[in-house]
Amino acid sequence: xxxxxxxxxxxxxxxxxxxxxxxxxxxxxxxxxxxxxxxxxxxxxxxxxxxxxxxxxxxxxxxxxxxxxxxxxxxxxxxxxxxxxxxxxxxxxxxxxxxxxxxxxxxxxxxxxxxxxxxxxxxxxxxxxxxxxxxxxxxxxxxxxxxxxxxxxxxxxxxxxxxxxxxxxxxxxxxxxxxxxxxxxxxxxxxxxxxxxxxxxxxxxxxxxxxxxxxxxxxxxxxxxxxxxxxxxxxxxxxxxxxxxxxxxxxxxxxxxxxxxxxxxxxxxxxxxxxxxxxxxx
Length: 282
Known about the structure:
Blueprint: H1 8-17, H2 38-41, E1 55-59, H3 66-79, E2 86-91, E3 97-98, E4 114-115, E5 119-120, E6 129-132, H4 144-153, E7 159-162, H5 166-172, E8 180-181, H6 188-192, E9 199-200, E10 206-209, E11 212-215, H7 220-233, H8 235-244, H9 257-261
Parallel strand pairs: 1-2, 1-6, 2-5, 6-7, 7-11, 8-9
Antiparallel strand pairs: 3-4, 10-11
Helix pairs in contact: 3-7, 7-8
């Protein structure tokens, strides 16, 4: 358990100084409990005039990149210590799924993590947020069931989050049409070529267009999730979580050294604001 000595006054002061929120959607956590954690104490009501999401889902398929999933999920796992959240893992079947690469593995290595789904595409749970990771598996030829699931599920979601080449799955499902989105810069040409109807933003660590949040490559998903938590639950909570992880997130999505490294540009590069949302958007 994380110690809260010396932290109580800091957190309480941050919450008191926070701007007025919309009407509360649930009771704040009792910060005097001996079981309180910094994460429980930092609870804030949603800052975006919506009910806070509680039902999260991870789209699972073979050969995902582990940090695309577990990086963002760790933020939520820590938040769940003081605020009710639920995670479902959805795949084509209930069979265990490995992150070991099925291709691009010239060394013949056997190195990966095995995950067990909780639900199938045929019997999915109700969700508020769906997270789509990237990885070598996004290039697989047998993703039609996953793509169909994303297309069918998106209309009922509060938010859709993609990380890395996971944007390619969302793009193929048609749910990014007309939206500004970004993806892995090393896989830029391949992923953006999947759907020309998407307004692909080259220089962006992450971007939010309406209820769709997309991150650049791999670790950028953690920067997106830090921003997402600040947007939904407040900056005080986001800072408590990132400090608890001993992680310093990139806070300005316009600073994208990997776009420069991979010589990626787009006519839409000026459309991402300092807060990660589309310029002129909400």
